[in-house]
Each structure stands twice: as structure tokens, then as C-alpha cells.
Design goal:
226 residues; alpha/beta; 7-stranded mixed beta sheet; 7 helices; 7 strands
């Protein structure tokens, strides 16, 4: 099954809103750190329900916001959730971004980058479209150090790229981006039961669940175009 087919099914089942609810726990902190100024052009890559672009319009006054997704159904749903003429949703390929050189101020991507067919080419494309000094905020929960995420590949039919934090830094640099910062954003909102309630359907121990959410959380890598 292709990425498009997989996520068309997710959108049809309403799972886009479920992803929004879960991702918002850490995405909102990444979005708050973005140096978006009033009137800036922003690309939300792998936009899903479009929540990130809407938040940047509402909280930072971003000018033109584009949400791009590989799934037509995701883009269609996002458009239906959005009542803002300055937000546009596109269906496209992460490896061939439909933007001119030096035309975008900031790129945000949450839990989507690892679905790219050619992740290094995606980074080169991001570098190409970013204006000098533009930033890319890349947030992922599926990465090498997060051992609790490794099994996710077994539950989805499309191939995912699992890089380590160091591999993300190296790939950003290879694409011509400076690595401004990299850290983990803990998920402090998901409820973790008392130790006496383990094992649960999903977790053998409370320690493992704490590690997954409170320690590993979301890996954020921030790149800057020279």
C-alpha cells in the first residue's frame, strides 16, 4: 500500500483528528519556539488535519500558510476544518515540493518526515525553498533512541525511515542546513497510571511508559538555511 492509500484510509476513518489530539501535546511547544513573524510564509509538511498551520496563523500572525500532504483525503479534510483564505492545502510529493527557490520563510513537519520516499532529497528540497535565514522544525516520535517506537513499523504498511538523533543532524548538514538546536520535548499531558495498574494492554511496566512519554517524547531538530 502506498503512503497516499494508507493515509486516505486514515482520513476516511477520522483518524486525522485523533492524530491532531495526540500530536498537539508536544507540537504546541515546537510551534511556540518557531521564529515566525507577522506576514511570513510557512509550509506545514505532512499537514494531516492542518492544525499546525492554523495555530501559526492564530498565535503568530503567519501570512500565507500552505499545508502539503501526500493524501488527497487528508488535504480535503483539512480544508474542511479551516475557515481562512490565507491557508491553502496541497497534495504533493515530499521529494518534489511545488514551491519556487527561496520562497518560504519556515517549514514545520510533525510526525510525517519519516514517511518520505527519499528523506535526504526532502531535506534538499526544504533547503531549496527556504529563504536565507529560514528555519525548518522537524519533530518526530519515531526515531532510533526511542526504543518504544520501533514496533510501529509492524503496524503500518508503508516503509518508514528510522534515524537516530545524530543521523538527523548529519542529514540536515548534508542538505546544506545549519543545525541550530536539537532536543526532546516530553509529553507531560498523557496520563500515566499508578504502578499498581500495570501491566496494561499496551505497557508491561510503568517505567517503560514514563520513559516513552516523559523522557523520549518528541525529538525536535531545528535547521537554518544559510
Amino acid at each position: 500500500m502506498s503512503v497516499r492509500e494508507e493515509f486516505d484510509d486514515w482520513a476516511a476513518d477520522g483518524r486525522d483528528k485523533g492524530m491532531e489530539d495526540r500530536h498537539w501535546h508536544t507540537a504546541k511547544y515546537a510551534l511556540a519556539r518557531m521564529p515566525v513573524e507577522e506576514g511570513d510564509t510557512v509550509l506545514d509538511l505532512g499537514c494531516g488535519s492542518g492544525y499546525a498551520g492554523r495555530a501559526l496563523r492564530e498565535t503568530k500572525g503567519a501570512g500565507r500558510v500552505y499545508g502539503l500532504d501526500g493524501s488527497p483525503e487528508m488535504a480535503r479534510n483539512a480544508d474542511g476544518y479551516t475557515d481562512d483564505s490565507d491557508v491553502t492545502y496541497l497534495v504533493g510529493d515530499f521529494d518534489h515540493l511545488p514551491f519556487a527557490d527561496d520562497s518560504v520563510d519556515h517549514v514545520f513537519t510533525m510526525e510525517a518526515f519519516y514517511y518520505a520516499n527519499e528523506p535526504q532529497e526532502t531535506l534538499r528540497e526544504i533547503r531549496r525553498i527556504l529563504r536565507p535565514g529560514g528555519t525548518v522544525f522537524c519533530a518526530v516520535n519515531y526515531y532510533e533512541e526511542n526504543v518504544h517506537s520501533h514496533e510501529w513499523q509492524d503496524s503500518i504498511s508503508v516503509e518508514m525511515t528510522r534515524w537516530s538523533a545524530e543521523q538527523y543532524r548529519d542529514a540536515f548538514r548534508d542538505a546544506g542546513l545549519y543545525v541550530a538546536e536539537q532536543d526532546n520535548i516530553p509529553d507531560r499531558e498523557i496520563g500515566i497510571p499508578e504502578k499498581s495498574e500495570f501491566p496494561t494492554d499496551s505497557w508491561e511496566t510503568r517505567e517503560a511508559m514514563v520513559e516513552r512519554y516523559r523522557e523520549f517524547g518528541t525529538l525536535l531538530t531545528v535547521g537554518v538555511a544559510p
